[in-house]
Specification:
The longest helix is centred in the N-terminal third of the chain and has 64 residues, at 42-105. A hairpin with a 2-residue loop joins strand 15 (425-428) and strand 16. The chain has 738 residues and is of the alpha/beta class. The chain has five domains: 2-40, Complement Module, domain 1, CATH 2.10.70; 150-310, Heat Shock Protein 90 (2-Layer Sandwich), CATH 3.30.565.10; 321-462, Rossmann fold (3-Layer(aba) Sandwich), CATH 3.40.50; 476-601, Rossmann fold (3-Layer(aba) Sandwich), CATH 3.40.50.2300; 635-736, Up-down Bundle (Four Helix Bundle (Hemerythrin (Met), subunit A)), CATH 1.20.120. The protein has 22 helices and 21 strands. Strands 4, 5, 6, 7, 8, 9 and 10 form a seven-stranded mixed sheet that branches. A six-stranded mixed sheet has the order 12-11-13-14-16-15, with helices on both faces.
């Protein structure tokens, strides 16, 4: 047996001991004595006491940590709620600014006014980008960022991101091109919004850092199929530029938050320093990786590699392009066409890839001399010659003349230039022009189909991204009778005005409900074709409103419900769909987004809208005035500035003619002397006055010459000068008879 006892030493001190008692027995088993062994237990008792103290301290610390964790969770929750509130509060007035600017841009603005409207629009989106960066970074820090997994078209996302960047690239004089591998499946499961955000972040940096350099800035965005299995694909996205580049030290810290190349980067280029950090976090959450290769003074290449899950049923990426190019689904686009692609390595290779994938019979040569040899050696029959000019003016006249002497060849030309217009233009019976900046696969196929006679040139109103507006909406009764009346539930007065103005531009009529309860009462009338509802309203919010409508609809016709909210923090898009809504619009809502939503969900109105007088937003060097332009000078522009006094109008126009003639002399002299910057300065002086009197085409040509002068682009100036002379002569002739 073991006993714990207290022993007394000779000096009278006590100590704990462990005593072992063992019975001693004889051969018969009888106890004859006991063996006692005692051990000093002081050290063990001290260890146990210390252990007990540590346990108590640990318990106290656990309680303290639990309390701290609760405080942190509450603080994090408060932070998230604050960010959600701030997101809503910031985006609500931004919706008013951006929405009304979009509406204003559809009115009859002169050139100077349109330029100011564009500045406001771009500035608002720059502010919104900064806000979104800060909110996204906060969500990532809190572990609250969510990634969707919904069917998405990779090609649409890439093209949309590049389209978003095209205006900025145009303003900064940067050539922006894209290529989407046609072998990429038509749809995959992923988060289109976050992928678009990554690409825009990278492309935005590429455009910024490749502009303002001695050489022409160039940015390339490419989406490539890297790996493919029956269940998933791995895609690579490359964003390359020829900008300022980075050294190895800068690359090492590139993806750290709030970090830029040096302190001058923010001053020179702007930005929060969060874009790349956010992009890397997004890519990591998607299970991918992001890399950078850069050389100081030569440019950078960012690579993003992301896996995507395939849908159960896949459609070939090229099968449904017929709807984008105006053909019926069962018609062939370019299949069987003999196509010769001419141009240096780069874009010309991409053009050949697009055409070959869609079953054209493609040959590839590097220049026009090789093209002439190939044409001379081929058998008679139809042929489309696709020429990538690579920014230079091709000498086509001789080749076109030669092919016309041999009509059995049936040669047609598609010339890919460098410009910002998105549609193919039929310039002659054998010549189609298309712009290479942000050139998509569908637009290329459209151009070739037009050249071959398989498709017609599109009207401007049918172009992707063009906003078709109407001057006069239907009356409420007419809209109700035709089944197109819209109900808008929105409690913010500014947002009410914005959405009503936006809907009016599309010829649509809407009723406003100030809260969900009022909207539910109005819905019960059965007058409405569609409901657009804010999510956060007094009395009854958008979720409760949707639930009430869906419950009342049981067994009846389902009305489309579109969420309309400024809160982008808590994954509300998925929640909206789960709650029974059909789609989602995030404030601020742009006209193109609203247009797409209306076309998707609203029954088609049979009457054609009356075209509104809209001003062009192009600011780059234009081609010759668009055929069919109604007037050389729109005097109404000047009247809007100074009133209807005819005597004053004539005085202004007379003064303009004198001033324009003097400036034209300066411009011609500068061009003849090779003084490119002086020519640009002269064009600048004439630009604003031409726009002010309504000579908009002349003003745009001056803007192009000004830009060419600043860039030292003698070739562009040489191309624009004859067009300027013709347009100026037309303006002077028109004003002489006014």
């Amino acid at each position: 047996d073991i006993y714990e006892l207290t022993y007394i030493r000779k000096d009278g001190s006590r100590f704990p001991a462990v005593v072992s008692v063992t019975a001693l027995r004889d051969a018969q088993g009888a106890i004859i004595g006991y063996l006692l062994i005692g051990t000093d237990n002081t050290a063990r008792k001290q260890v146990e006491a210390e252990r007990a103290q540590l346990y108590v301290a640990l318990q106290d610390k656990n309680v303290e940590l639990e309390s701290a964790r609760a405080v942190a969770e509450n603080a994090n929750l408060a932070k998230s709620e604050f960010l959600a509130t701030m997101s809503h509060e910031i985006r609500t007035p931004m919706n008013g600014v951006i929405g009304m600017i979009d509406v204003l841009k559809q009115s009859s603005l002169n050139g100077a006014q349109m330029e100011m409207a564009n500045i406001i629009h771009d500035s608002a989106f720059s502010l919104l980008a900064v806000i979104n960066d800060i909110l996204d970074f906060s969500k990532i820090e809190a572990g609250k960022l969510q990634i969707e997994s919904i069917p998405m078209s990779v090609a649409d996302v890439v093209e949309g991101a590049c389209e978003n960047m095209s205006h900025m690239a145009l303003k900064k004089g940067v050539e922006l091109t894209l290529f989407t591998d046609p072998a990429i499946p038509a749809e995959v499961l992923g988060d289109p919004g976050r992928l678009r955000q990554i690409l825009i972040n990278l492309a935005n940096n590429a455009v910024k850092f490749s502009s303002g350099q001695p050489r022409q800035g160039k940015v390339s965005v490419r989406a490539l199929l890297a790996e493919s299995t029956p269940e998933r694909v791995t895609l690579e996205f490359h964003v390359a530029d020829n900008g300022i580049g980075m050294d190895e030290e800068t690359q090492a810290r590139l993806f750290s938050p709030f970090t830029q190349a040096d302190s001058s980067t923010t001053r020179n280029f702007g930005g929060t320093g969060l874009g790349l950090a956010i992009s890397r976090q997004l890519v990591n959450i998607m299970g991918g990786e992001i890399t950078v290769h850069s050389e100081l003074g030569k440019g950078s290449l960012f690579g993003v590699r992301i896996p995507f899950v395939l849908l159960t049923e896949q459609r070939d990426a090229g099968r449904d392009l017929s709807r984008h190019v105006g053909l019926k689904p069962d018609q062939q686009l370019v299949a069987g066409l003999s196509c010769l692609v001419v141009g240096p390595d780069g874009m010309a290779d991409d053009l050949a890839t697009y055409l070959a994938y869609d079953k054209a019979l493609v040959e590839r040569v590097p220049d026009l001399a090789a093209a002439r040899e190939w044409l001379d050696s081929r058998l008679p029959g139809p042929c489309i010659v696709v020429i990538d000019t690579a920014g230079r003016k091709p000498q086509l006249d001789e080749m076109r003349a030669a092919t016309r002497t041999h009509p059995e060849q049936e040669v047609r030309f598609v010339v890919v230039e460098r410009g910002q217009r998105r549609r193919p233009r039929l310039k002659d019976s054998d010549l189609v022009q298309v712009d290479g900046n942000v050139l998509t696969r569908s637009v290329l196929l459209k151009a070739v189909a037009i050249a071959s006679g398989r498709a017609k040139e599109p009207d401007r109103k049918d172009l992707p991204g063009e906003v078709k507006v109407a001057r006069t909406p239907l009356s409420r009764e007419e809209a109700r009778r035709r089944g197109s009346l819209i109900l808008v539930a929105e409690d913010n007065e500014i947002n009410q005005k914005v959405i009503l103005q936006q809907l009016m531009l599309f010829g649509q009529t809407a009723d406003i409900a100030n809260n969900g309860r009022e909207a539910l009462k109005r819905w019960q009338s059965g007058d409405y074709a569609i409901l657009i509802t804010d999510l956060h309203m007094p009395e009854m919010d958008g979720y409760e409103l949707t639930a009430a409508i869906r419950a009342a609809e049981a067994g009846k016709t389902r009305m489309p419900i579109i969420a309309f909210t400024a809160n982008v923090l808590k994954g509300e898009a998925g929640r909206c769909l789960a709650m029974g809504m059909d789609d989602y619009l995030s404030k601020p809502v742009q006209l193109t987004e609203l247009k797409e939503m209306l076309e998707k969900w609203l029954p088609i109105v049979t009457s054609d809208p009356i075209p509104a007088e809209t001003a062009s937003t192009d600011t780059a060097p234009p081609a010759p005035p668009i055929a069919g332009a109604s007037v050389t000078v729109d005097v109404n522009v000047l009247k809007a500035l100074i009133g209807d006094d005819e005597a004053l109008i004539r005085e202004f126009l007379h003064d303009f003619c004198i001033s324009a003639a003097k400036i034209a002399v300066e411009l011609r002299a500068a061009c003849a002397a090779g003084q490119i910057m002086a020519a640009g300065t002269a064009a600048h002086k004439l630009k604003s006055s031409a726009r002010s009197v309504g000579a908009l085409a002349l003003g745009e040509l001056c803007a192009g010459m000004e830009k060419a002068g600043k860039a030292g682009d003698t070739e562009a100036l040489a191309v624009l000068l004859p067009r300027f002379e013709l347009e100026l002569a037309d303006v002077e002739h028109y004003l002489t008879g006014y």
